Amino acid sequence: MTSPGHSDDPVQRLRARLNEVHDWPSVYMYKMVLEPDEDRIAQLLALFPPEGEVLRRYSKGGRYVSITLRQMVMSADEVIERYMQVHRLGGVMML
How many Cβ atoms from other residues are within 10 Å of residue 36's Cβ? Predict the structure, then answer.
């Protein structure tokens, strides 16, 4: 049984946590790791507005690339929707 104000639904918990730590609109930082396939990276970046800041960092052996995206978002729901889009893309570990 959950205590009042807590949910077993991970999306609801994420939404609540995002609303606790952010005042919207806010700059949000997404961090993801994937294999350095340029087509997959292009598909991933196409999910985000072009005006956001993008940082790529390749692992020492070059087997993985971490992508950090910073962008202005209007709400927790916008953050969650973007995570769902990335999840549907597949092959991306979200941090």
Answer: 13
Could you tell me the domains of the chain?
Answer: 24-94 (3.30.70.260)
DSSP state of 2: P
| Residue 76 CB coordination number (10 Å) | 21
Tens-place pLDDT, residues 23-79 = 999 999 999 999 999 999 999 999 999 998 999 999 999 999 999 999 999 999 999
DSSP 6: -
Nearest to 69 by CA among 85, 61, 4, 60: 85
Nearest to 65 by CA among 30, 95, 41, 90: 41
